[in-house]
Amino acid sequence: MLTKNQYEDLWLHQFYMNIPLLGIVPPNYHEYVLREVQFQDYLNLFNSDPLLTYQRVVNPTYPEHGPVYLLRNEEYYLVGNYPWPGMEGSIKAPIKYILIAESSRESAAATYVYNSNHTKFTHYFSAIVSAFGIGGDNKNDRLYQMACKGILLIDIFPFSIDYSRLRKILNNKGVTKYFWDSKTNPYSINNRLNEIALRYRLDEKWDLSLMAPYLLSDYILDPKNGLHPLVLSIPGVHPFTFRKSLSYTHSASRSKLLKLCISTAGFPHATLIKYSFNHKN
Length: 281
Description:
The protein is an alpha/beta fold.
């Protein structure tokens, strides 16, 4: 999780200074924290080394406020009740399927995929559930089944803003690449997945697909742009599948790239996700 200083520094130096952000208010740090807590709730379902896992503790300053996560930066964040009581570390299966999205919607911590209290339709969650044949009586159940199958969705950017006018600029200014594989960016996909690999088990055949909007996903996958496969302690099959082409024709596909899961309608598509991992129900 980014500290407030890290969050504001990334906004200033990577977004504000590179993009004509006319009329765009700096995203709320508190909303980012709420999303990160929901993400950590999900991660804590996976079995890990207790010494390397963020722990829920009694708030040392305001114990009446309930449990909090103790993070590396020694700041405390209120998290409320854990969505899966007593289930922390219950999933022994490793993380195998990693999906990359762009970011949550504007002012939408409440609609975030990992928010178990949000039950309305979203294209992203629906596509994942359908692709992997996930059932369940409620969103909590479906999220738990996602974890049981070793599925992880992770965003490229920490800021909840409207990216529709910004994607080309972010690509051309090198911001997308900086959030993809930079070793100096604490929020880069490469750094965060390496930290996850340290704390939780990655399957030896882990793989990655992109379900961020087309302009962003296509930019990452196009070799002329110089973005390379991620380098993790466990290479998985990701380096070999990163730029593979589809071996079939699908009417919904906007691209011939296997790992680009966005349909011609502009949304993630369950069939494209399923085939991107050669997943069969």
